[in-house]
Amino acid sequence: MHYVCAGKRPEYAGAATCSCSQIYADGVEGWVWENVCNLLGDRDRLLALADEWVGATAKKQVDYSSRLASLDQKIAEKSDTIDLMTATFATQVTRQGLTGQAAEAAVERKLQPHYADLEQLQKERADIELWQSEAQEADQRAKDLHALAQSAHGRLQTFTKEQQAEWLALLDIKVKVLENPPPMRRGLACPVGEWFREHERDVPTLDDQVWGRIAELEGFPNGGLVPRQAGGVAPRTVLEAFLKKARTGASWPALEAETGSKGLIGQWKRWSKQGRWERVMEVMKGCDGVPVAPRHRLPKMQMTGKVRPGVILAATSAREAGDQEGHAQESGPWAPACCSSGRPGRAAGRWWP
What we know:
GO molecular function: DNA binding; DNA strand exchange activity
Shape: elongated
Mean pLDDT: 77
Strand content: 5-15%
Keywords: Coiled coil, DNA recombination, DNA-binding
Strand order of the largest sheet: 2-1-7
Order of helices and strands: EEHHHHEHEHHHHHEEHE
Radius of gyration: 36 Å
Low-confidence stretches: 324-353
Structural class: mainly alpha
Coiled coil: 121-148
Region (Disordered): 321-353
Largest sheet: 3 strands, mixed
Number of domains: 3
C-alpha cells in the first residue's frame, strides 16, 4: 500500500505530471500514530494543561459573576431612575404648555442621556455574558481534557487499526509532505535491519573495549584491525559497516564504496552461516544503542490536527457502549471508514496534495 502524489494524475490529456516517488502507507501511518501517542499518551502533560485551564477559568468565573451582579444592580437602578425622571419631565413639559407629540418629544430629549447610559450598561452585560459562556466552555474542555488524559493513558499503543482510524478522524489529522519523497526501495528488505527487528533490539554502539572482547572471542589476528588478506577488509570495518547499515538503512553499494570492499554481502552471509553474527551480538548485548532504521525512509512531513476532548470522549463512550452490547458500530458519525483493501483508512492509490 502506498500514497501517490496528486500531481501524478493529469488534469487533462497530455498534461505534465509529477515525477516524485510514491510513499509507503505503513511508514506514514506509523509516523502519524506515533506522534498522536506522544501527545495524547503523555498523561502528565495533558493533566498539567487541564489543571492550568481549570484554574484560570475558575478565577474568571468568579470575576464574571461578580461583574454581572454589579451590572444587574446598576441596570435596575438606571431603569428606576428613568421611570422617575419620565414622570418628572412629563410634569415639567405640561407646565410649559406642551401637549401631545410635542410633549413626548421633549421628554425623550431630556431622557436621551439616561437611555444612552442604560444601553451602554446592557451592552457591557451582554459582553460579560458572552465571556462567561466562553469561560464555561473552556472549563468544560479542560475537564474533558483531564478525562481524556486518564482514558488515553496506556491504551493508545494497544489500539487496533480500526480504532486508530476512528481517532485520527476525530482529531481531523492532516499531513503535509514538505519535500520530494526518497525513491522507493525495491527488492528484499535489509537482512541486517530485519535481524534487529525480529529480535526487538536496538543497534548497539561499538567501542574499543567491546571490540577487544569480540576480537579475542573470534581469534582475529592483529586484533581484527587489519585485513586478513590483500584487498580485503578488516573484521572491525566489516562489523562497523553492518551496524551502520542497520542504523541508517544505507545500501550495500554505498557501504562498499565507503569501505573499499565489494564483498560485504558475501561477508554478511558468511558471518550469518558460521554463527559469528549471533556470537558477536551476544557479546554486544547490553551496549548502548539506537533504534534500527525504518524499512522505508520517509520525507519531511508536518502534521496538524484538533484536540477536541469532549468529542473524542463521547465517541469513545459510544463505542464502548456498543461493544458491551455485543455489536460494533457499522455506521454513523464515528464509524471507521473502510475501503476496498479491507483495511481501515487504507487505499491502494491514495492521493496526497
